[in-house]
Amino acid sequence: MAADQLVNADDLEAPLISPAASYHDEHRSRIRRSTSNTTSQVALIGSNLCPIESLDYELVENDFLKQDWRSRGPGHIVQYVILKWTLCFLVGVLSGAVGFFNNLAVENIAGVKFVITSNMMLTRKFGWAFGVFAGTNFVLLMFASMITTFISPAAAGSGIPEVKAYLNGVDAPDIFSLKTFFVKVVGCIAAVSSSLCVGKAGPMIHTSACIASILGQGGSRKYKLTCKWLRYFKNDRDRRDLVTCGSGAGVAAAFRAPVGGVLFALECVSSWWRSALLWRAFFTTAVVVVILRALIDICNSGKCGLFGKGGLIMFDVTSADVTYHLIDLPPVLVLGVIGGILGSFYNFLLQKVLRVYNLINEKGHVCKLLLAASVSIFTSCCLFGLPWLASCKPCPAGLSEACPSIGRSGNFKKFQCAPDHYNDLASLFFNTNDDAIRNLYSAGTDNVFQKSSVFLFFIASYFLGIISYGLAVPSGLFVPVILTGATYGRLVGMLMGSHSTLNHGLFAVLGSASLLGGSMRMTVSVCVIILELTNNLLLLPLVMLVLLISKTVADVFNADVYDLLVKLKGLPYLEAHAEPYMRQLTVGDVVGGPLQIFNGVEKVSNIVHVLKTTGHHGFPVVDEPPFSSSPVLFGLILRAHLLVLLKKKTFLHACTLASIDVSKQFSAEDFAKRGSGKHENIEGIDLTAEEMDMFVDLHPYTNTSPYTVVETMSLAKALILFREVGLRHLLVIPKSSSRAPVVGILTRHDFMPEHILGAHPFLLQSRWKTIRLGKSNLIELFSGLC
Q1: What is the chain's mean pLDDT, rounded?
Q2: What backbone torsions phi and psi does residue 401 show, to the nearest 5 degrees?
Q3: How far apart are CA 358 and CA 44, in angstroms?
Q4: What single DSSP character describes residue 268?
Q5: Cβ distance 778 to 772 under 8 Å?
Q6: Residue 55 in contact with residue 728, Cβ under 8 Å?
Q7: Distances (CA, A) of 274 to 170, 278, 724
Q8: Burial class, 33, CB count within 10 angstroms (exposed 0-12 / middle 13-18 / buried 19+)
Q9: Which stretches are annotated as coiled coil (predicted)?
């Protein structure tokens, strides 16, 4: 059932013009009797509910495009290859520049806020200090929330679920638009600078994907920023590859982790991968780190404002000779197990909170802003109030940095303490997330933090990270999870004491890895990112071990956080595997009707009627007498191509095959795919009564080799074909030649479990369910053992 667009049921009785030949009258009446498919497909994109549709990675093979391909010489092929590498280079340069700008802006904006607040604390003006701190946070967060709510709701959140769904074949309006790009950058800077417990890595991935998509679609027609030489990228397949490279560039820009960025794109967001794409993705991330390195050299000369280092994450956490022994394995195992439990519980709580936030956000813009305001005030109270619970400590002797650190970042914040004393909890709260992680990762600081302070910071960061995500602002989960994991890891290291030879900074690194594995369930990419962050390859065995354990434990309880977010948003994501119950059904069991079919030479009025009364994007074309001896499937024609034909008005006065050269009437650019979420509509085409009575020869524009399956094929087998090839339409043909040449069309919607189980509820008992650990499971397990 082709149900990948909204359908306007009010247009069912749109008037048609006078009849033509008898068999056309019969065909038209068949179209009129067909009831439209009224299934609408919507999902939560950012913070708004939006219509979505499928992408089509299949190459259209019709007579017109074949003729265009044959006309291209070796020069066009060379130009195409050069263009692909040039775009990857531009994506890397722009992503590196934007990542550097984001970090620099956050460090300086947040730095000014912390310096002013600390200066007021030095003069004992605690009330004014809290007012400035909370007021600045409130203004920054409300600014981020307002521009997101009123300008680009698609920019809310991390954007990773949307990028993941896009690379799986789901498109939505404005997810990669120019306004989304600007709101994502500015909103992320404001939100992170407001001391909200969110990160900038997720938004950076979405931002780089926006850069890749905008370049891939040739710029923006709306803002008159287009390039004709980008016409080779006017298809979903090339844009998909470029967005994949962009997502890897985002990770490289956020963490200076080029290899980790490539592996993140491979492991987390992409649904299709090949060796050529691996090479281009690696080239893109390499360009990113080169740009970052060049810009960091500028900062090293002290030209980057308050903090002078650009604020880019890089933690040299341990000495050059990391040593560990057999006695250290039990603590590492404990870290992995607890990290898996905490990560799965993090996902569980986050899912519950987001359901509540979605109900609040549905009530309108005012409720979105009130929710953001409430969380901002609560966060400011926690960050300013909790350090008062910590006792002051005297500054250690022989330090390489100032203690207490006044007017700058550092491990030693004075807060309310006496001279030559510092507040260790304030040193964590009154810093950006990057600097707090750096403090926790630092080697040689085993006596800097108190257990009670680290425990309080862990509890606060764990729950603040959960309630901060889901607001109508650009926000990420990656850095808050790293921060919370580092806190929990250091706490475990402090509790282990002399039972382990590992220092507390190394425990913090392993804690971050364990919580990332428990929440996000990424192993290879997280392992490499952690190694690139800490610049120490000696940590590899321990990081691998803790990731494997935490992921294994967490998988017992629930899915990874991005899968949960994709489902929560209602995005129709196709998994790489088919569930067992799908093998009990054939494609004929799920394909539905009515089926809208066009003749090879179709009347204009019939085409207009179908386009107005359905939201289908693909229509089978069947040749009937007198163009064939019997009804035969000629191919599939796309809605977008039909709109081009109607707009150009290449009509025939009689029901005959076109005798003119179509290459003289059209160019390949006429049929090129428009930008993400942008489409022509039938309402914008004006036709006269005389034109409505004319005909269109669809043969030159019909894809003559669409993918087809026999109606007896299992649904599981069809799903694998549909996903691996990246289809939007899969034609179902009959097993018997005596029937109509096409039974129906399978779309993404037909493979969704909700649709299948709704139509066949008896399959609920045989549905595959991942084993989850609960009370009943434990009882059954132990009773079985006994």
Answers
A1: 83
A2: -120, 165
A3: 9
A4: I
A5: no
A6: yes
A7: 20, 6, 12
A8: exposed
A9: none
Taking the C-alpha atoms of residue 595 and residue 614, their distance in angstroms, rounded to an integer, is: 11
Lookup: tokens for 19? 């009849």
3-state secondary structure of 390: coil
Rounded to two decimals, the pTM is 0.88
Q: What is the pLDDT of residues 104-147, one digit of tens each?
A: 899 889 888 988 888 888 888 889 999 999 999 999 999 999 99
Give the β-pairing of 744-746 and 708-710.
unpaired
What residues are paired with 484 via a beta bridge? none
Q: Find, among 614, 616, 622, the residue nearest to 23 by Cα.
A: 622
Task: Give yes or no for a contact between 251 and 529, defined as CB atoms under 8 angstroms apart.
Answer: yes
- Rounded Cα distance, 201 and 213, in Å: 18
DSSP notation for 549-611: HHHHHHHTT---HHHHHHHHTT--PPPSS--GGGGG-BHHHH--SPPP-EESEEEHHHHHHHH
CA 60 to chain centre: 27
Question: CA separation (Å) from 197 to 101, 193, 431, 504?
Answer: 20, 10, 11, 23
Taking the C-alpha atoms of residue 676 and residue 653, their distance in angstroms, rounded to an integer, is 36
Per the listing, tokens 């002013």 go with 116
Tokens of 291: 């740009």
Q: Which of 455, 570, 609, 484 is nearest to 27 (CA)?
A: 609
Nearest-angstrom CA–CA distance, 450 and 498: 16
Cβ atoms within 10 Å of 784's Cβ, excluding its own:
7
Tokens 């008896």 belong to: 762
